[in-house]
Amino acid sequence: MKFVRFATAGRPEPVWGVLVNDEVVELEGDCFSTPARRKARHPLSQVRLLPPCSPTKVVAVGLNYRDHARELGFPVPDEPIIFLKPPTSVIGPGDAIVHPRMSSQVDYEAELGIVIKDRISAIKPGEAYGHILGYTCANDVTARDLQKKDGQWTRAKSFDTFCPIGPWIETDLDPGDLLVESYLNGERKQSSRTSQLIFGIDWLVSFISGIMTLCPGDLIITGTPAGIGPMVPGDEVEVRIEGIGTLKNRVIADFGLRISD
Predict the structure, then answer these.
(1) pLDDT by residue (tens digit) across 151-178?
(2) Does the N-terminal peptide bond of residue 51 adopt cis geometry, omega within 30 degrees of 0?
(3) Is the residue at 261 inside a domain?
(4) What residue numbers bound the domain in which 213 lies?
(5) Are 163 and 116 in a shared domain?
(6) Are residues 195 and 73 in the same domain?
(7) Range with the lowest mean pLDDT among 3-17, 47-61, 220-234?
(8) Residue 260 lies in a domain
(9) Predicted TM-score (pTM) above 0.90
(10) pLDDT at residue 259 above 60?
(11) Side by side, which strands form the sheet with 236-241?
(12) Does residue 35 sit in the same domain as residue 72?
């Protein structure tokens, strides 16, 4: 099942739905509470897809592919390296990634996203899949120069628009060996499989829930493979994940003022 959040021309507030072929069927309530189907249907071409979840937090995992750790010159971690991206960084399919003026290098990072189904704390790995609603595509956009300058990742990962997700949440999926790719202006830049993750899905959910309570709709993004690189205004970036679909966003310039202005 593919859960979507969407808006229509006559109703801009978010509505939950299920994608059935090329139509969106509206749902009562949300996908976290066993919703009932409505009669209302909309052609997919006539709705605006929104971020498929509205997380209280985005928990990101760094260096979770060995080839990516090597390309950055970091040792392979013996425990997951995690950091947070704020909810204000989240955007949906088709939304614009804003290239901030204070950065000279903004990179794409294709990742599998895990959407949490219910409130959990300190669960065991064997319990993890029962608390996952489904999976989505994610782009952990990063101001690489600021990451190097700061020596830590908060500023580099936290700009508004730096966490595109979507286009929907796929619930009927085995995440163990999925193809994860990124494309920049139609050219493939990253390609790996989730079977190459250092820390697997169940282990990550258990580990993170042992540190912080996870809430319905919270998002875990699981790390990116090698092949990261810069984007500039005018570029179009795609994250494609087998069994889910394609998340597409364009990059635009930030016309705001610098902090120092």
Answers:
(1) 999 999 999 999 999 999 999 999 999 9
(2) no
(3) no
(4) 58-253
(5) yes
(6) yes
(7) 3-17
(8) no
(9) yes
(10) no
(11) 96-99, 245-253, 236-241, 179-184, 187-193
(12) no
176, 112: one domain: yes
Residue 16: pLDDT above 90?
yes
At a CB cut-off of 8 Å and minimum separation 6, what does 48 contact? Answer: 6, 7, 8, 94
> Do the domain assignments include residue 132?
yes
Dihedral sign of CA atoms 90, 91, 97, 98 in order: negative
Domain assignment present for residue 93? The answer is: yes
| Average pLDDT of the segment spanning 178-202 | 97
